[in-house]
Design a protein that fits this description.
four-stranded antiparallel β-sheet, 25% helix, Elongation Factor Tu (Ef-tu), domain 3, 3 helices, single chain, disordered N terminus, conserved putative lor/sdh protein from methanococcus maripaludis s2 fold
Protein backbone atom coordinates (compact mmCIF):
# COMPACT_ATOMS: atom_id res chain seq x y z
CA UNK A 1 0.00 0.00 0.00
CA UNK A 2 1.28 3.49 -0.81
CA UNK A 3 0.11 6.96 -0.04
CA UNK A 4 0.65 10.03 -2.19
CA UNK A 5 2.50 13.05 -0.69
CA UNK A 6 2.42 16.04 -3.02
CA UNK A 7 1.67 13.81 -5.92
CA UNK A 8 4.59 11.38 -5.35
CA UNK A 9 4.25 7.81 -4.13
CA UNK A 10 5.92 7.14 -0.78
CA UNK A 11 5.98 4.01 1.43
CA UNK A 12 3.66 4.17 4.45
CA UNK A 13 5.22 5.41 7.74
CA UNK A 14 4.49 2.15 9.57
CA UNK A 15 6.36 0.13 6.99
CA UNK A 16 9.42 2.40 7.16
CA UNK A 17 9.62 2.15 10.97
CA UNK A 18 9.32 -1.62 10.81
CA UNK A 19 12.25 -1.84 8.41
CA UNK A 20 14.44 0.45 10.60
CA UNK A 21 13.71 -1.49 13.83
CA UNK A 22 14.42 -4.81 12.11
CA UNK A 23 17.75 -3.55 10.80
CA UNK A 24 18.84 -2.26 14.22
CA UNK A 25 17.96 -5.59 15.86
CA UNK A 26 19.95 -7.54 13.29
CA UNK A 27 23.04 -5.33 13.61
CA UNK A 28 23.02 -5.04 17.46
CA UNK A 29 25.43 -7.97 18.05
CA UNK A 30 27.96 -6.29 15.75
CA UNK A 31 28.11 -3.16 17.97
CA UNK A 32 28.60 -4.10 21.68
CA UNK A 33 28.15 -1.25 24.28
CA UNK A 34 31.20 0.82 25.15
CA UNK A 35 32.98 -0.17 28.34
CA UNK A 36 31.83 1.74 31.44
CA UNK A 37 34.03 4.53 32.71
CA UNK A 38 35.87 4.02 35.96
CA UNK A 39 33.85 4.93 39.09
CA UNK A 40 34.32 8.54 40.06
CA UNK A 41 34.37 9.71 43.71
CA UNK A 42 30.86 10.03 45.12
CA UNK A 43 29.93 13.15 47.06
CA UNK A 44 28.55 12.11 50.47
CA UNK A 45 27.42 13.61 53.78
CA UNK A 46 28.60 12.02 56.99
CA UNK A 47 27.52 12.08 60.64
CA UNK A 48 29.44 10.98 63.71
CA UNK A 49 28.52 8.05 65.91
CA UNK A 50 28.24 9.52 69.38
CA UNK A 51 27.82 8.52 72.99
CA UNK A 52 24.90 10.27 74.63
CA UNK A 53 22.28 9.80 77.34
CA UNK A 54 19.54 7.57 75.98
CA UNK A 55 16.09 7.60 77.47
CA UNK A 56 13.56 5.01 76.44
CA UNK A 57 10.20 6.67 75.92
CA UNK A 58 6.63 5.67 75.27
CA UNK A 59 4.15 7.82 73.33
CA UNK A 60 1.07 9.17 75.08
CA UNK A 61 -1.65 11.04 73.23
CA UNK A 62 -2.43 14.42 74.74
CA UNK A 63 -4.01 17.71 73.77
CA UNK A 64 -3.46 21.43 73.83
CA UNK A 65 -5.44 23.30 76.47
CA UNK A 66 -5.94 27.03 76.89
CA UNK A 67 -4.91 28.65 80.14
CA UNK A 68 -7.55 31.32 79.71
CA UNK A 69 -10.94 30.62 78.16
CA UNK A 70 -14.60 30.81 79.04
CA UNK A 71 -17.82 32.78 78.86
CA UNK A 72 -17.62 36.53 79.42
CA UNK A 73 -20.64 37.61 81.47
CA UNK A 74 -22.36 40.89 82.22
CA UNK A 75 -21.99 42.22 85.76
CA UNK A 76 -25.19 44.29 85.69
CA UNK A 77 -28.66 43.64 84.26
CA UNK A 78 -29.81 45.53 81.22
CA UNK A 79 -30.91 45.57 77.61
CA UNK A 80 -28.28 44.99 74.93
CA UNK A 81 -27.64 48.14 72.91
CA UNK A 82 -24.79 46.83 70.74
CA UNK A 83 -22.76 43.66 70.17
CA UNK A 84 -19.38 44.77 68.86
CA UNK A 85 -17.80 41.43 67.90
CA UNK A 86 -18.46 38.46 65.68
CA UNK A 87 -17.47 34.83 66.04
CA UNK A 88 -13.89 34.30 64.93
CA UNK A 89 -12.70 37.84 65.60
CA UNK A 90 -9.46 38.33 67.52
CA UNK A 91 -9.68 40.94 70.27
CA UNK A 92 -7.25 42.59 72.67
CA UNK A 93 -7.70 42.85 76.42
CA UNK A 94 -10.05 45.76 77.13
CA UNK A 95 -11.77 45.64 73.74
CA UNK A 96 -15.53 46.25 73.83
CA UNK A 97 -17.57 43.08 73.34
CA UNK A 98 -21.04 44.57 73.92
CA UNK A 99 -22.80 47.52 75.53
CA UNK A 100 -26.03 47.77 77.47
CA UNK A 101 -28.51 50.66 77.39
CA UNK A 102 -27.10 52.88 80.11
CA UNK A 103 -29.66 55.70 80.55
CA UNK A 104 -30.73 54.48 84.00
CA UNK A 105 -27.12 53.95 85.08
CA UNK A 106 -26.22 57.43 83.84
CA UNK A 107 -29.11 59.00 85.76
CA UNK A 108 -28.19 57.08 88.90
CA UNK A 109 -24.60 58.29 88.62
CA UNK A 110 -25.76 61.88 88.24
CA UNK A 111 -28.08 61.54 91.26
CA UNK A 112 -25.30 60.16 93.43
CA UNK A 113 -22.95 62.90 92.27
CA UNK A 114 -25.52 65.51 93.34
CA UNK A 115 -25.84 63.86 96.74
CA UNK A 116 -22.09 64.03 97.21
CA UNK A 117 -22.12 67.71 96.31
CA UNK A 118 -24.93 68.31 98.84
CA UNK A 119 -23.19 66.61 101.75
CA UNK A 120 -19.91 68.34 100.94
CA UNK A 121 -21.78 71.66 100.97
CA UNK A 122 -23.31 70.72 104.33
CA UNK A 123 -19.84 70.06 105.69
CA UNK A 124 -18.64 73.45 104.50
CA UNK A 125 -21.68 75.15 106.07
CA UNK A 126 -21.20 73.35 109.41
CA UNK A 127 -17.54 74.24 109.42
CA UNK A 128 -18.33 77.92 108.80
CA UNK A 129 -20.95 78.05 111.59
CA UNK A 130 -18.54 76.41 114.00
CA UNK A 131 -15.85 78.91 113.12
CA UNK A 132 -18.27 81.76 113.81
CA UNK A 133 -19.25 80.40 117.22
CA UNK A 134 -15.62 79.88 118.17
CA UNK A 135 -14.86 83.46 117.13
CA UNK A 136 -17.67 84.86 119.32
CA UNK A 137 -16.62 82.72 122.26
CA UNK A 138 -13.03 83.90 121.85
CA UNK A 139 -14.02 87.58 121.91
CA UNK A 140 -16.17 87.14 125.03
CA UNK A 141 -13.41 85.18 126.72
CA UNK A 142 -11.09 88.19 126.26
CA UNK A 143 -13.56 90.34 128.23
CA UNK A 144 -13.55 88.26 131.41
CA UNK A 145 -11.82 91.06 133.39
CA UNK A 146 -14.19 93.71 132.00
CA UNK A 147 -17.51 94.79 133.56
CA UNK A 148 -19.04 94.03 130.10
CA UNK A 149 -18.35 90.31 130.50
CA UNK A 150 -21.54 88.21 130.73
CA UNK A 151 -21.07 84.82 132.38
CA UNK A 152 -24.35 83.39 131.08
CA UNK A 153 -23.68 84.40 127.49
CA UNK A 154 -20.19 82.94 127.68
CA UNK A 155 -21.53 79.59 128.86
CA UNK A 156 -24.14 79.61 126.08
CA UNK A 157 -21.44 80.23 123.43
CA UNK A 158 -19.33 77.37 124.74
CA UNK A 159 -22.36 75.09 124.44
CA UNK A 160 -23.05 76.33 120.94
CA UNK A 161 -19.44 75.58 119.96
CA UNK A 162 -19.86 71.99 121.18
CA UNK A 163 -23.10 71.68 119.19
CA UNK A 164 -21.33 73.06 116.09
CA UNK A 165 -18.53 70.54 116.46
CA UNK A 166 -21.09 67.70 116.65
CA UNK A 167 -22.93 69.01 113.58
CA UNK A 168 -19.66 69.20 111.63
CA UNK A 169 -18.75 65.66 112.62
CA UNK A 170 -22.18 64.43 111.50
CA UNK A 171 -21.90 66.23 108.17
CA UNK A 172 -18.42 64.84 107.59
CA UNK A 173 -19.65 61.32 108.42
CA UNK A 174 -22.25 61.58 105.64
CA UNK A 175 -19.60 62.33 103.03
CA UNK A 176 -18.11 58.81 103.04
CA UNK A 177 -21.36 56.91 102.31
CA UNK A 178 -22.35 59.45 99.67
CA UNK A 179 -19.04 59.06 97.89
CA UNK A 180 -19.31 55.26 98.14
CA UNK A 181 -22.78 55.39 96.54
CA UNK A 182 -21.36 57.55 93.78
CA UNK A 183 -18.55 55.06 93.22
CA UNK A 184 -21.06 52.21 93.00
CA UNK A 185 -23.06 54.16 90.44
CA UNK A 186 -19.90 54.83 88.40
CA UNK A 187 -19.00 51.12 88.52
CA UNK A 188 -22.50 50.14 87.38
CA UNK A 189 -22.25 52.62 84.51
CA UNK A 190 -18.82 51.28 83.51
CA UNK A 191 -20.13 47.71 83.76
CA UNK A 192 -22.77 48.49 81.15
CA UNK A 193 -19.88 48.16 78.70
CA UNK A 194 -18.69 44.52 78.61
CA UNK A 195 -14.99 44.27 77.75
CA UNK A 196 -12.58 41.43 76.97
CA UNK A 197 -10.58 40.55 80.11
CA UNK A 198 -7.69 39.12 78.06
CA UNK A 199 -6.44 38.75 74.49
CA UNK A 200 -8.22 36.03 72.56
CA UNK A 201 -10.58 34.87 69.83
CA UNK A 202 -14.36 35.02 70.05
CA UNK A 203 -15.63 31.45 69.75
CA UNK A 204 -19.32 32.03 70.48
CA UNK A 205 -21.80 34.88 70.78
CA UNK A 206 -24.78 34.56 73.12
CA UNK A 207 -26.51 37.96 72.98
CA UNK A 208 -28.09 40.09 70.28
CA UNK A 209 -29.28 43.68 70.23
CA UNK A 210 -32.53 44.11 72.21
CA UNK A 211 -32.07 41.08 74.45
CA UNK A 212 -32.44 41.62 78.19
CA UNK A 213 -29.64 40.15 80.24
CA UNK A 214 -29.67 39.35 83.92
CA UNK A 215 -26.57 39.72 86.04
CA UNK A 216 -24.15 36.91 85.17
CA UNK A 217 -25.64 36.16 81.75
CA UNK A 218 -22.96 35.27 79.15
CA UNK A 219 -22.36 37.67 76.29
CA UNK A 220 -19.60 35.85 74.35
CA UNK A 221 -17.06 33.05 74.73
CA UNK A 222 -13.40 33.89 74.47
CA UNK A 223 -10.27 31.74 74.23
CA UNK A 224 -6.63 32.80 74.36
CA UNK A 225 -5.03 30.59 71.71
CA UNK A 226 -1.59 32.11 72.29
CA UNK A 227 -1.26 30.89 75.88
CA UNK A 228 -1.54 27.10 75.73
CA UNK A 229 -0.31 24.13 77.72
CA UNK A 230 -0.14 20.43 76.96
CA UNK A 231 -2.36 18.08 78.93
CA UNK A 232 -2.35 14.29 78.88
CA UNK A 233 -3.96 11.44 80.79
CA UNK A 234 -0.95 9.30 81.73
CA UNK A 235 -1.27 5.68 82.95
CA UNK A 236 -0.42 5.46 86.65
CA UNK A 237 2.54 3.06 86.13
CA UNK A 238 4.22 5.66 83.89
CA UNK A 239 4.13 8.48 86.44
CA UNK A 240 7.36 7.59 88.25
CA UNK A 241 9.55 9.65 85.91
CA UNK A 242 7.17 12.60 85.67
CA UNK A 243 8.30 14.70 88.60
CA UNK A 244 7.88 18.46 88.58
CA UNK A 245 10.21 19.99 85.99
CA UNK A 246 11.07 16.65 84.33
CA UNK A 247 11.86 17.19 80.61
CA UNK A 248 9.85 15.50 77.86
CA UNK A 249 9.41 15.90 74.12
CA UNK A 250 6.11 16.88 72.53
CA UNK A 251 5.42 16.08 68.88
CA UNK A 252 2.92 18.13 66.89
CA UNK A 253 2.76 16.89 63.30
CA UNK A 254 6.39 17.06 62.12
CA UNK A 255 7.47 19.49 64.85
CA UNK A 256 9.13 18.39 68.07
CA UNK A 257 9.33 20.83 70.97
CA UNK A 258 10.79 20.51 74.43
CA UNK A 259 8.46 20.58 77.41
CA UNK A 260 8.60 20.08 81.14
CA UNK A 261 6.19 18.74 83.72
CA UNK A 262 4.33 21.56 85.46
CA UNK A 263 1.93 19.54 87.59
CA UNK A 264 0.60 16.05 88.15
CA UNK A 265 -2.98 16.35 89.38
CA UNK A 266 -3.67 14.30 92.53
CA UNK A 267 -6.83 12.72 91.12
CA UNK A 268 -6.89 9.31 89.44
CA UNK A 269 -9.54 8.14 87.01
CA UNK A 270 -10.99 4.95 88.50
CA UNK A 271 -12.01 3.58 85.11
CA UNK A 272 -8.83 4.19 83.09
CA UNK A 273 -6.35 4.35 86.00
CA UNK A 274 -4.79 7.48 84.55
CA UNK A 275 -3.91 10.83 86.06
CA UNK A 276 -3.92 14.21 84.33
CA UNK A 277 -0.48 15.76 83.80
CA UNK A 278 0.12 19.34 82.65
CA UNK A 279 3.26 20.19 80.64
CA UNK A 280 4.73 23.64 80.13
CA UNK A 281 6.16 24.30 76.65
CA UNK A 282 6.86 27.05 74.14
CA UNK A 283 4.70 26.77 71.03
CA UNK A 284 6.03 29.76 69.09
CA UNK A 285 7.12 27.51 66.22
CA UNK A 286 3.62 26.00 65.89
CA UNK A 287 1.45 28.14 63.67
CA UNK A 288 -1.74 26.09 63.72
CA UNK A 289 -2.53 26.26 67.43
CA UNK A 290 -5.94 25.26 68.70
CA UNK A 291 -7.35 24.08 72.00
CA UNK A 292 -7.96 20.31 72.14
CA UNK A 293 -5.63 19.69 69.21
CA UNK A 294 -4.04 16.25 69.53
CA UNK A 295 -0.33 15.98 70.31
CA UNK A 296 2.01 13.13 71.20
CA UNK A 297 4.07 13.31 74.38
CA UNK A 298 7.10 11.04 74.63
CA UNK A 299 7.40 10.25 78.33
CA UNK A 300 10.26 8.32 79.97
CA UNK A 301 9.78 4.56 80.19
CA UNK A 302 13.09 3.79 81.94
CA UNK A 303 15.97 5.68 83.58
CA UNK A 304 18.48 7.37 81.28
CA UNK A 305 21.67 5.52 80.32
CA UNK A 306 24.71 6.23 78.18
CA UNK A 307 24.60 4.61 74.75
CA UNK A 308 26.20 4.82 71.31
CA UNK A 309 23.81 6.17 68.71
CA UNK A 310 23.87 6.40 64.93
CA UNK A 311 21.75 8.53 62.60
CA UNK A 312 18.80 6.65 61.12
CA UNK A 313 19.69 7.73 57.56
CA UNK A 314 22.94 5.78 57.77
CA UNK A 315 21.13 2.44 58.12
CA UNK A 316 20.91 0.14 55.08
CA UNK A 317 19.09 -3.20 54.98
CA UNK A 318 20.66 -5.62 52.50
CA UNK A 319 20.22 -9.36 52.19
CA UNK A 320 18.83 -9.60 55.71
CA UNK A 321 21.73 -7.66 57.21
CA UNK A 322 21.75 -4.26 58.91
CA UNK A 323 24.70 -2.31 57.54
CA UNK A 324 26.22 1.16 57.31
CA UNK A 325 28.98 2.72 55.23
CA UNK A 326 31.84 4.21 57.23
CA UNK A 327 33.98 6.95 55.74
CA UNK A 328 37.57 5.69 56.14
CA UNK A 329 40.63 7.03 54.29
CA UNK A 330 38.52 8.53 51.50
CA UNK A 331 36.65 5.29 50.81
CA UNK A 332 33.32 3.73 51.79
CA UNK A 333 33.79 0.80 54.16
CA UNK A 334 30.73 -1.44 54.49
CA UNK A 335 30.08 -2.38 58.12
CA UNK A 336 27.48 -4.74 59.56
CA UNK A 337 25.94 -3.43 62.79
CA UNK A 338 23.55 -4.53 65.50
CA UNK A 339 21.00 -1.98 66.64
CA UNK A 340 18.98 -1.47 69.79
CA UNK A 341 16.21 0.96 70.63
CA UNK A 342 15.20 3.84 68.41
CA UNK A 343 15.07 7.39 69.74
CA UNK A 344 13.62 9.91 67.29
CA UNK A 345 16.23 10.31 64.47
CA UNK A 346 18.82 7.91 65.90
CA UNK A 347 19.29 4.24 66.74
CA UNK A 348 21.19 2.74 69.63
CA UNK A 349 24.27 0.84 68.43
CA UNK A 350 24.90 -2.45 70.24
CA UNK A 351 27.79 -3.68 68.08
CA UNK A 352 29.81 -2.79 64.99
CA UNK A 353 30.65 0.88 65.52
CA UNK A 354 32.63 3.03 67.93
CA UNK A 355 32.16 6.58 69.17
CA UNK A 356 33.51 9.07 66.64
CA UNK A 357 33.09 6.82 63.58
CA UNK A 358 31.96 8.85 60.57
CA UNK A 359 29.03 7.12 58.88
CA UNK A 360 27.55 8.16 55.56
CA UNK A 361 23.97 9.45 55.76
CA UNK A 362 23.59 11.00 52.28
CA UNK A 363 24.74 9.45 49.05
CA UNK A 364 24.94 5.94 50.54
CA UNK A 365 22.08 4.45 48.54
CA UNK A 366 24.16 3.50 45.47
CA UNK A 367 27.58 3.15 47.07
CA UNK A 368 29.72 0.07 46.57
CA UNK A 369 32.12 -1.30 49.16
CA UNK A 370 35.54 0.39 49.01
CA UNK A 371 34.26 2.98 46.53
CA UNK A 372 36.09 6.30 46.57
CA UNK A 373 34.15 9.14 48.21
CA UNK A 374 34.34 12.89 48.71
CA UNK A 375 32.90 14.25 51.97
CA UNK A 376 30.67 17.27 51.57
CA UNK A 377 31.97 20.42 53.23
CA UNK A 378 30.09 21.17 56.43
CA UNK A 379 28.93 17.62 57.16
CA UNK A 380 29.66 16.07 60.55
CA UNK A 381 32.25 13.44 61.29
Amino acid sequence: MTVSWFGRARPACGAILAVIVGAMTALAPLFPPAPAAADEPVLVVVDAVRSEPLSETVPVIGRLVALESGDIATRVPGTVAQVAVRVGERVKAGAVLATLIADRATAERDLRAAEVAAVEAAVASARARLALKRQEAGRLDSLKASPAFGEARYLDLRQEVQIGEAELAQAEAEVGPARAQLRLAEIALADSTIRAPYDGVVTRRFADVGAYLQTGAPVASLIDDQLLEVEADVPAPRLAGLTSGAPVLVQIDDNRVSASVRAVLPVENTQTRTRTVRFRTALDAIRDRAANRAVTIHIPAAPKREALTVHKDAILYRAGLTQVFRAADGRAALQTVRLGDATFERFEVLDGLAAGDAVIIRGNERLKPDQEITISVGSGG
